[in-house]
Amino acid sequence: MSVRDPASLQRLIDMGIEVWHLRQHGSEARSPRAESSGVGSRQPRIRLSSGDGDWLLVRREPWRGSHEALLADLMATIGPERCRFGQWSKDSASGESLEELVERGVNHILCFGRLDQAPSWPQLLVAPSLDELSRDPEARRELWSLMLPRIQR
Q1: With the C-alpha atoms ordered 81, 105, 150, 61, is the resulting torsion angle positive or negative?
Q2: CA atoms of 21 and 99, how far apart (whole Å)
Q3: Residues 51 and 111 in one domain
Q4: What are the backbone dihedrals phi and psi of residue 141, each rounded to the nearest 5 degrees, phi first?
Q5: CB–CB of 87/47 below 8 Å?
Q6: Residue-range definition of the domain harbouring residue 71
Q7: What is the pLDDT of residue 3?
Q8: Which of 46, 36, 64 is nearest to 123 (CA)?
Q9: 66 three-state secondary structure
Q10: Do 84 and 125 belong to one domain?
Q11: 68 phi and psi angles, rounded to 5 deg
């Protein structure tokens, strides 16, 4: 099926249907979905590292084992079997979109560190960085106030 009408393309995009374009004669066809995304020219994506739970703990940098005691406390509070880890993707071709994460069972995304342009995902909780949490009691209070309503469900 070929859809060339801009109004028809927009209706498909609004319904969440991804429209694919063929490249012809070396020209780069741009996806209407990418053009209409709210964050720059692409949807934010997260690369999954490890774990299998409904809570995804995310940061910009790779997980290197720092702040082990703090993470152990968080995992004990949430439940270790409910935690998985990930990292924000810098490349639009790698990682998982929100829709793919939800399909994998992710219900809560806890991001450590402020984001320049945070996606408006209902599952996303943006917390202070792990460095801030390890040294600042006020940052820890902020984290617990973010998490408490989700944990009590």
Answers
A1: positive
A2: 21
A3: yes
A4: -60, -40
A5: yes
A6: 46-151
A7: 55
A8: 46
A9: coil
A10: yes
A11: -60, -40
Q: Report the distance separating Cα 41 and Cα 12, nearest Å.
A: 18
Residues 31 and 55 in one domain: no
| 96-136 pLDDT per residue, tens | 999 999 999 999 999 999 888 888 889 999 999 999 999 99
- C-alpha distances out from residue 21 to 18, 27, 33, 37, Å: 10, 11, 11, 17
Considering the domain architecture, whether residues 53 and 108 belong to the same structural domain is answered as yes
Instruction: Give the contacts of 96 (CB within 8 A, at least 6 positions apart).
Output: 45, 46, 47, 48, 104
- Confirm if 40 and 92 have CB atoms less than 8 A apart: no
Tell me whether residue 117 is in a domain: yes
Other CB atoms closer than 10 Å to residue 15's CB: what's the count?
A: 7
**Are 98 and 144 in a shared domain?**
yes
Interstrand relation of 83-88 and 124-127 (parallel, antiparallel or unpaired): unpaired
- Do 32 and 78 belong together in one domain? no
